[in-house]
UniProtKB/TrEMBL annotation:
It comes from Actinomadura vinacea. It comes from the Bacteria. Residues 16-113 form the SnoaL-like domain. InterPro entries: NTF2-like_dom_sf, SnoaL-like. This is SnoaL-like domain-containing protein. SUPFAM superfamilies: NTF2-like.
């Protein structure tokens, strides 16, 4: 594959949401390469490799049953790289809202080798 197209990126994002709603971290192997570099914010240290991503993934969520809605829009696709705008709203005991930009790099098999997230919450300082 010379690159990804918009449809492939949309399917990948849908798979990410399904994985977040699924117990365990086994679905991550379908989405991410074994040596993935996952950056959960622009200031964080990357999580490198599926063996480290799985435990982090499980620790970051309240569980696969946590109530949330997620919408996405593919902003750009160029070769093996895509930019996606994400909106997530969590409900329940600790409600929160997020707007994210994801920068995704894919391998020839369509798995993500580089994930970079730029998350913003409504009350978060934004430099003003």
């Amino acid at each position: 594959m010379a690159g990804v197209d918009r449809g492939a990126v949309e399917r990948w994002v849908a798979g990410y949401e399904r994985a977040w709603r699924t117990p365990g971290s086994e679905p991550l192997a379908e989405l991410f390469s074994p040596d993935v570099s996952y950056l959960p914010s622009p200031w964080a240290r990357p999580i490198v490799g599926l063996s480290r991503l799985g435990p982090w993934w499980d620790a970051e969520r309240d569980g696969p049953d946590e109530p949330f809605t997620m919408t996405s829009e593919v902003v750009a696709v160029d070769g093996d790289t895509a930019v996606v705008r994400i909106e997530v709203e969590y409900f329940g005991d600790d409600p929160s809202r997020w707007r994210d930009l994801w920068i995704l790099r894919f391998d020839a098999d369509g798995r993500c080798v580089g994930f970079e997230e730029w998350p913003f919450a409504p009350d978060q300082p934004d430099g003003h």
